[in-house]
Amino acid sequence: MRIGIIGSGVAGSLLAEGLLGSPHHDVVVFERAAAGEHAEAGTGLNLGPNALKALRLHAPARHDALRAASLPWRRWLVELTDGTPLLDLDLLSVAEEPGVRIRWSELYRALRAPVAHMTRHGRALEALEEDAAGRLVPVFRAPFGALIREGGFDLLIGGDGRYSRLRALTAGEPVPEHLGLCIWRLLVTEADDCPFDDYGQWFRGSNRLLAFRVPGNAVYIAGTFRLGGDVPIPEEARTAAHQRALFTPEGAAPSPAVSWMLGRIEADLGGIHWARTQEAPMLRHAAGGRALFLGDAAQAMVPTLGQGATQAIEDGTIAAAILRAGGDAAAVAAWRDPRVDFARRLSLAASDTILGTDPVEGTLEKGRAPFLAELHRLYTEVPGPEELALPARVAAA
Ligand SMILES: Cc1cc2nc3c(=O)[nH]c(=O)nc-3n(C[C@H](O)[C@H](O)[C@H](O)COP(=O)(O)OP(=O)(O)OC[C@H]3O[C@@H](n4cnc5c(N)ncnc54)[C@H](O)[C@@H]3O)c2cc1C
Predict the structure, then answer these.
(1) Which of 5, 10, 153 to mutate to test the pocket of ligand 1 (most atoms within 8 A of CB)?
(2) Which domains does the chain have, with CATH numbers?
(3) Which of 143, 148, 152, 160 could form a disulfide with 7 if both were Cys (CB 3.0 to 4.6 A apart)?
(4) pLDDT at 224 over 80
(5) What pLDDT score does 395 carry?
(6) Ligand 1, from 52, 100, 160: best to mutate by most atoms within 8 Å of Cβ?
(7) What is the mean pLDDT of the chain?
(8) What angle do helix axes 256-267 and 240-247 make, rounded to 10 degrees?
(9) How far apart are CA 113 and CA 175, in angstroms?
């Protein structure tokens, strides 16, 4: 079977690695970025313990490479911006191993390395045609402007992210749902004087700072605040004074952690990447099963629990195991859709405190048994290769 993977991001790279050496699959990866170009991703991210479990079970060499390139994510601390403590969760109380804190560039570097030899760079999917055998023929735009055809494929995989061209070409542009939230992110380098290490969140009303250290003496900071509807981010919100006002507690001094972040926001304002939070409806396959979507192309979700790239890791590793076992796009959907639906619903439910629920009550709720049981399910319910063998897959379907 000839498989073309569009995009060597998180899901696409892992799928390609998982199919390496398969006698039944002839795989090529097409990536619009140039070889060695990982910088566009910027900033940092946290990957949930379930991503590490998927790698441990399906791609142990990648598990070790990510651990080596990252810091462990063991703790989830929540405070008000004046330092009032609300939650201090030990992740090992709900997971089998810690998650990771990593820089985007290092994540891409670690995942792309094993499939570099099968990746054609400078190929941006632009159009689709069909050959006489009814196979999809992707048409790529090369950096010098020419259109390139690379032949027909039995299966095309959309690993091309949130604005998937493959999904748009086969199923139409998805209509995103805006949550009326601005989310900005900043990578602070040379952060010797940063007073915190592991993952923390700091609330003033529904305005939230989220931050943690990543390797290379750097700190990732993300700020979230409500926009009051599906509107563009106002220019005046992009100033240091506005951001300081959003996160400064009323009638009290900011905690040392918040005070440090406010100083760095002011100093590095130009380095902030501004965005609005949105979700896209889930879609696993199209074109009669000849196009299969993984990661954000299938399921762009709110970033609240750090599950976007985490689910892309589950997608890439698990889809590889299913295809190797002889499964098809429908089999991948049967395994992945209920799981992703659960992760999306939990991520949305956990967004209550940035959407207007009282942050004190909403956070205390996250330390109670019902939410902890959901987190345990999220972090541990990852099937191993033996469960994904065909008979089990048929049973799941
Ligand atoms: C503000 C913010 C914070 C986030 N924080 C986290 C976090 O902490 N933890 C977490 O797990 N997730 C986080 N996410 C989500 C995460 O970024 C995505 O879910 C993840 O990158 C999806 O992986 P993917 O493999 O689907 O796509 P990507 O990693 O986006 O890869 C897509 C690849 O396709 C290539 N490509 C795109 N178009 C084409 C084309 N036409 N032709 C060829 N190649 C193409 C791109 O160059 C890229 O290599 C965050 C997202 C946002 C917006």
Answers:
(1) 10
(2) 2-176+278-396 (3.50.50.60)
(3) 160
(4) yes
(5) 43
(6) 160
(7) 95
(8) 170
(9) 34
